[in-house]
Write a structure and sequence with these properties.
By secondary structure, the chain is α/β, with parallel strands linked by helices. The chain is 21% helix and 28% strand. The structure holds NADPH dihydro-nicotinamide-adenine-dinucleotide phosphate.
């Protein structure tokens, strides 16, 4: 292992909207900060958001990637220090030592965790194998591809029902498979979906497998009450069963809730002094771009106050 190379006031882990906002605010506040992002591109979940963004105050964008490009243009124009392809593999939150995939270690006076969330997986046969061959990555992006076809959507939250509405515009039929008999999706989405002839609902059922040869042709489901298995024909499947926080690296070092979301106070401070968590990784309630950006700014201000006042 190399010797400690650098010292920062703040190390930010994760380059989505929350992390980028924290980096911008640290720069504003004159803090020596560095942001590390493991992927080749910045943006986090924005890179996987394909719908038009019109609910972030002051900026509209055709999709998440376009919005993240706007964020980066701003940061790069004033040379805010951010590094991509820089995966953090280990963090000692007590000593505030961050280890990168290269073996390099950096020390920080405070750490802002902005590692976001990832989509949950069903974990059934066919889910990974048929990615891009019937298992869709996005509803908006697949509208043309499913024209006249049969689509299955798995889930019962906003994402499932909103995508049923989107794909229902072109698909011959959309079948929503939900494991319970009531939905958590917004009433507005549900009312519209229930009113459409080509959207059907199958309740209290779980997916057992996604089947096909070259491409998806059906899925097997089981009714959770009766144990009865059925085959549902499908040309495409979209899985929208929520997200999980990317917080495994910090487990046991700071307080988390049962689902792994980091517990923070109103300033974004976690249970250990000098550690903050921002964005979706600490926010199961309102995972929006606006909230992420706001929480990044808040934690940067709180870091600054802590460093000045102790
Ligand atoms: P949610 O967590 O809101 O809903 C997840 C759904 O998937 C629930 O119906 C859940 O069922 C079901 N589910 C979870 N695990 C499984 C499993 N293993 N097998 C089958 N079903 C499962 O997630 P979403 O992806 O819908 O949304 C994530 C966040 O993004 C939410 O905050 C949502 O409000 C937001 N969002 C907002 C949109 C908008 O405002 N336009 C659009 C899309 C998302 P159960 O209820 O039984 O747990």
């Amino acid at each position: 292992m190399e010797q400690l190379k650098s010292d920062f006031d703040v190390v930010i882990i994760g380059g989505g909207p929350a992390g980028l906002s924290a980096a911008l605010w640290c720069f504003e506040l004159g803090l020596r900060a560095m942001l590390y992002e493991k992927e080749g591109e910045f943006g986090g979940q924005l890179l996987r958001t394909f719908n038009v963004i019109k609910n972030h105050l002051g900026i509209e964008a055709a999709n998440g990637r376009e919005l993240s490009e706007k964020f980066l243009l701003q940061l790069n124009s004033i040379e805010v220090p951010i590094k991509n392809n820089a995966g953090v593999t280990e963090v000692d939150l007590q000593r505030k030592i961050v280890t990168l995939g290269t073996g390099e270690q950096v020390s920080a006076r405070t750490v802002i965790i902005a590692t976001g969330v990832r989509r949950s997986r069903l974990g059934v046969p066919g889910e990974v194998e048929f990615e891009g061959r019937g298992v869709l990555h996005s509803g908006v992006d697949s509208k043309a591809a499913v024209a006249g076809k049969d689509v299955v959507i798995v889930g019962g939250g906003d994402a499932a029902i909103e995508n049923a509405l989107i794909l229902g515009e072109t698909a011959r039929k959309v079948v929503v498979i939900h494991r319970r008999n009531e939905f958590t999706a917004r009433k507005e989405f549900l009312d519209r979906a229930i009113g459409l002839d080509n959207i059907e609902f199958i309740y209290e059922s779980e997916v057992c497998s996604i089947n096909g040869d070259e491409v998806v042709s059906s899925i097997d489901i089981v009714n959770i009450n009766e144990g009865r298995r059925t085959k549902v024909s499908a040309d495409a499947v979209l899985i929208r069963i929520g997200v999980v926080p990317n917080t495994e690296m910090f487990r046991g070092q700071i307080d988390m809730d049962a689902k792994g979301y980091i517990v923070v106070n109103a300033s974004g401070a976690a249970s250990r002094v000098g550690i903050f968590a921002v964005g979706d990784a600490a926010n199961p309630i309102s995972p929006t771009i606006s909230t992420a950006v706001g929480s990044g700014a808040t934690a940067a201000k709180a870091s600054s106050a802590l460093l000045i006042n102790g």
